[in-house]
Amino acid sequence: MRTRKLSMAGIAVGALALTVSTSIPLAYGHGYTTAPISRAKNCANGTVQNCGQIQWEPQSTEGPKGFPGAGPADGKLCSAGLSQFAQLDDQRGGAWPATQLTAGATYTFRWHLTAAHATTDFKYYVTKQGWNQNAPLTRSALELTPFLTVPMGGARPAYDVAHAGTLPNRTGRHMILAVWTIADTANAFYQCSDVRF
């Protein structure tokens, strides 16, 4: 009788472990933009100080997919809505380093993936002319039609990704929001880059 009770307990524990392990969504893809360099990567490089946890994991700005209709809340786009990365949403009075770009030119956007994953697409958004540079990034500050979309159709990208596209017509300081949407999870990765046209 004792052996049967132990066996039943073992089965119950095994079933519980299986339920827990299969109910937690796992995202195997992680990555960050290197061109134009993102806030997360600037923190990891030590170029920007007082960044908190993102300095050790620039590849982890992962939030709900579906941007712009869904995804992280306004004001938390750069951190992907993750409180441990909230420093990325702080505009710091314009002190983030900005990559110099030429409006209308062809530019190659680059990602480094620490773990590639089946991908829906990569999309690139830019702020509107006259956006509020002192406020955390919101949808109303962005052109919500991406200026570059790279569809992947569920394919797994290389670890170093390059996307050539035409830069939008802008002048002055702006932000580019790059969104990497994962095909087989509920998540996407969000990277904010400060740029100057």
TrEMBL record:
Residues 1-27 form the signal peptide. Pfam families: LPMO_10. The keyword Nucleus does not apply. It comes from the Bacteria. InterPro entries: Cellulose/chitin-bd_N (IPR004302), GlcNAc_Chitin_IntDeg (IPR051024), Ig_E-set (IPR014756). Residues 30-195 form the Chitin-binding type-4 domain. Keywords: Signal. The keyword Signal applies. This is Chitin-binding protein. It comes from Kribbella qitaiheensis.
